[in-house]
Amino acid sequence: MININLQSIRYFEMVARYEHYTKAANELYITQSTLSKAIENLEDELGVKLFEKQGRNVRLTFYGRILRDYVQRGTAEIEKGIQTVQNLANEQSGTVRTAAIYSAGSLLLPQYMKGFSDEYPDIKLRYMQIPTYRILDNLLNGDIDIGFCTNYENSDTYSSICRELIKTEEIYLIVPEGHRLADREYVEFEEIIDETWIGYNGDTGMATAIKNTARSVPTDKKLRFSFFATEESAIVGLVRAGLGIGMITGSQFINTDGVVKIHITKPCFFRNIYMVWNQDTQMSPPAKSFRRYILSVL
Question: CA nearest 294: which of 117, 143, 72?
Fold first, then answer.
């Protein structure tokens, strides 16, 4: 196995540039004998001659020219990588990778992103919309810096996730127009347990919020679900079609034509929106700036 360190490559690159051992050694602040020995070791390791003498100078051999071309490209990539890391480490520039649940991404987060971008114009925000548990998994995997999610089971799996409550939203019952409850402003949860429901997929925070609140009702009855969806707009569409009743938040971006929103009591249903991050992952300075900004505007 060939064993070549970066220092040897650096020495080779300098001799190839000056084609003179003394000049290269002076540039590297080492003795000429140290440099010559390093090049000899490199040639022995590769099994080829990289330089040949030409008077007081040296010139690259056929093999030396090939290696030089690869070293130059590799050095350029290393310098590019160093610059990228420095940019990311600069609190005033770099990229923050964020993710949010669909509803927060439509209403809540855009105003925060706009304010942050005005204050930090050189920091880029990379953003995607995914369900709560995918946000948490992305934090654990280091694929995002900060997330905005709703309720989740705070199990050992997510013990490293820190969260800050940024908003609490009421969850409403929705029924299709013409439903027996359509003229009601308030309805007790016990009145609707026997209805056919449109539910949320298990990886959504809404499913967790609804399930946790429903558990507080002393009854042996279980909700009957006809369909499951991920987004509130899909829930509305299925309810509008008369396939069941459902629950949504009060987001103004959801088209609720054809359905009626009703307050639920005994118990009231709410969901929390959290800003989340992984305390076991070193947060970049730009991400810290973003988190600090969000906390300052709450």
Answer: 117
